[in-house]
Amino acid sequence: MTQSAEPAGGTASPYPQFPMRRTCPFSEPDEYAGLRADEPVSRASLKVNGKETWLVTRHEHVKQVLGDPRVSSNLKRPGYPHQFHISEEMLAHVRLMMLSMDPPEHTAQRRMLIPEFTARRTKAMRPRIQEVVDERIDAMLAAGGPVDLVQALALPVPSLTICELLGVPYGDHAQFEEWSAALMNHDLSPEEYGAAVQALDMYLDKLVTLKETEPGDDLISRFLEKNRTEQAADHLDVVTMARMMLVGGHETTANMIALGVLALLEHPDHMAELRSDETLLPNAVEELLRVFSISDSGTARVAIEDIEVGGVTIRAGEGILALNNAADHDETVFADPGTLDFHRKEARSHLAFGYGIHQCMGANLARAELEIVYSTLLRRIPGLRLAVPAEELRYKDDAMVYGVYDLPVTW
Amino acid sequence: MHVTTDHDRCVGSGQCAMQSPEVFDQDDDGLVVVLQERPGAELLEEVHRAVELCPSQSIHVTG
Predict the structure, then answer these.
(1) What whole-number percentage of chain A has pLDDT above 90?
(2) What residue stretches are annotated with the 4Fe-4S ferredoxin-type domain (chain B) (predicted)?
């Protein structure tokens, strides 16, 4: 596939194209600072289909939009700013994932899942995550460097964690990672995208059917059990929920693991600081989440009534991208936003997990995984370094979730 | 300081319980529970942090 699809309508839009690219992996696209300053609620044209959308770039406005019940997440609504190729016909057949539902359907499903991700439950999962991380690092040390940290650690840790939580046999993980990566790729054709969704759903359909008759100690089985009384989801909803958890649970965290390690390797003073004072770890994780804000445009919405944002009227039926990478580099909230600062008091105010009723459910789990991976790596492989010049690394500029494709490291 | 919460709005992010564990907790359903409706002034800063970080704007502080 080519990178720059011609607008489908043929007429060139007068507005800047979206997505805009990061020129430095540790920052935001260069255009964002100017938008925040001069035109914080602005128009853009989507590269994928030439359709127009609003871009919202200031922290307070992103929070306002994502917290507004007059704004919908429903990707079937006309005007929703799609960021990948999807035909009208396919759209008509799509079963909405929870993240694309509005209340009250969203509320009913989310409520059944909330107990799985409480602060307490996540804490209880830590010892198992630590085991998983230690096993992977044992394997890295046994193999010897150089290794690709993405394949050796960044992908398997969240993949194993989410597979165990959902009750998916880990033996099938290679297949999952392939489908999952496909679903995050901007440049797939509708046919390729549809095929990936279908293959994953067929697998999950069998798995859910199995758990309906032979429940296990896992999230899918508990969801099915609750649903017997709640009746909030049918079989296909459960399959779709499982897909959302699986895809959302590993691609995102995997990218943050690899980018976070890269940030530490490229900032040796920060790494030394973190190694000498582990109490900095939770805030360091927040700061890394902020700086990268990897799911920048994951917060796509469409207005269902006219709303006013920063003095601009967004009309009912118009699409909105509330850009969290832009919000997380807002200099009125984060002084000197381009600087990585593990002592930054307001780091946790970032919107990397979104905001509002759709804020990432797995945020606490992701935080736990990141803390454990970074700290264990620092402790167990103190001599960790890049095995190639940083300039040679390739970044996921065209994916829905930002990341680095490979991270060759040695020690 | 008087702390109230809107149980129906809560989306169970657990941010409040992590920011201010003496004032907030999550019940078996994962939804917000207020442990102290009138916490002392020494907890003011962390309670305000919880308000700011709550993604569903379910926490209200008066007085």
Answers:
(1) 77
(2) 1-29
